[in-house]
Design goal:
By secondary structure, this protein is of the alpha/beta class. Helices cover 32% and strands 23% of the residues. The strands form five sheets. An eight-stranded mixed sheet has the order 12-11-8-13-16-17-18-19, sandwiched between helices. The two termini are 33 Å apart. About 3% of the residues have low confidence.
Length: 416
């Protein structure tokens, strides 16, 4: 595999030497493109010795090879680590003032930016907007780790460890990879959602039939509540919309309670404009009674059965996916599916993902009532590029895995 490793001008550039070694030890052909500023931290001789190749930085070096176009066209993967605030800004605005930014403009392969900078730089509105722009265009931008920075400061802005960057990069180009982009527990500990606002729905909606009965489902809300806990622990500001939860909502999140699909619809639409990540984990009723009986429906004396006419409920996931509330917003759906004689549950999930237009779909196979109300689960995360990741374990452990996965899903351009 041909890899382009871009190195920005930050003190964390020394870690990229270790990242380069991880790629080359696997036999990959790596060309390092350092920015001029980065050479103040790590010299060109280091990159050339470790890669066994020249480390050009100027568009006018080796002009006869047309490097500013060729390198991007030939690359199977581009990784920029560290990606400084300046480099992210130049990439977001399409500037091409050195060989690296020229390469970014012509690359058609997966591109992974790995930011590293001071906390205030990472959280500045300009950087937040630039990251959202890059994600909205399909680039992959890791959130920085939380930890010790240059000097005595600590916070989000630290470059993730090279093995974690390497795993995230390889996951982008391995067609059937089930490898987690970052180890799940480390992802939460490193605050992968620090500074981001997350909206999660949980539980199951109920549609009234008469004053005492309703149409509903078997969802307890355990998985959605576990996701809210994991997102909170990963540094996010979490809003949890709970539909008839059978478990307690966690501390440290904003709770909105609803009962019906219409109420959930209104609550989601009110909250999505503020959300960077929307996770629709609630089990939403697909149908409701066309009319609500004002009195309890009685058994008839003549033994005839009542006829209940159903009508569709709003398709909340499809609606918010088609009408993104903000640039760079990532939307994840959940699907409780069973297979039949013609298709597997996973095939149904892939078709649902295409219909809904969201950025990823989490499949729970519920044949025989599995998963509902249980403490353990098994999930498949399906994305539009055909990749599938899997996790099995307690709902708390799976939630941590999912949060680490969601944090690295690029936003689609659907609805924009």
């Amino acid at each position: 595999m041909k890899v382009v490793l871009g190195v920005g001008g930050g003190v964390a550039a020394y870690k990229s030497a270790l990242l380069l070694r991880l790629f080359t030890e696997e036999g990959h052909d790596v060309t390092v493109l350092p920015t001029t500023a980065s050479l103040n931290f790590v010299g060109a001789a280091t990159w050339e010795a470790l890669s066994g190749r020249p480390a050009p930085r100027d568009v006018f070096e080796d002009v006869e090879q047309v490097n500013h176009v060729r390198l991007g066209h030939e690359a199977d993967l581009v990784v920029v680590a560290p990606a400084t605030a300046d480099l992210l800004a130049r990439a977001a605005h399409g500037l091409a003032d050195d060989l690296l930014t020229n390469t970014l403009l012509v690359a058609t392969c997966p591109v992974l930016f790995v930011p590293a900078m001071h906390t205030q730089m990472w959280q500045h509105p300009a950087t937040v907007a630039n990251v959202a722009t890059l994600r909205s265009r399909g680039a992959h931008v890791l959130d920085p780790a939380v930890g010790r920075l240059t000097g005595c400061d600590s916070g989000p802005g630290r470059l993730p460890d090279p093995p974690d960057i390497h795993a995230a990069a390889i996951a982008l180009v391995a067609p059937d990879s089930t490898e987690r982009p970052v180890p799940a527990r480390d992802a939460v500990a490193d605050g992968v959602l620090s500074g981001r606002r997350v909206l999660i729905t949980a539980g199951g909606t109920r549609e009234p039939l008469d004053p005492v009965r309703y149409l509903g489902n078997r969802s307890s809300g355990k998985q959605g509540v576990a996701l809210a806990c994991a997102a909170r622990d990963a540094g996010a500001h979490v809003t949890l919309i709970g539909a008839n939860l059978q478990v307690e909502a966690p501390d440290g999140v904003d709770l909105v309670t609803v009962e019906t699909t219409d109420q959930l619809h209104d609550a989601v639409l009110a909250a999505t404009p503020d959300a960077d990540l929307v996770v629709m984990a609630a089990a939403v009723a697909d149908f409701r009674p066309r009319s609500l009986a004002t009195h309890k429906i009685k058994k008839s004396d003549d033994g005839t059965d009542p006829v209940i006419e159903l009508t569709r409920t709003p398709d909340i996931l499809a609606e918010i996916s088609a009408n993104r509330a903000r640039p760079g917003q990532v939307i994840v759906g959940f699907a409780a599916e069973t297979g039949d004689d013609t298709h597997t549950a996973l095939e149904f999930a892939r078709a649902k993902l295409a219909r809904k237009g969201c950025d990823a779909l989490v499949l729970n196979e519920v044949t025989g009532g599995a998963v509902f109300g249980q403490d353990s689960t098994a999930v498949h995360v399906v994305t539009p590029d055909g990749n599938t990741a899997e996790a099995t374990g307690t709902k708390d452990d799976v939630a941590v895995f999912l949060v680490g996965t969601f944090a690295r899903i690029p936003a689609s351009t659907v609805g924009r």
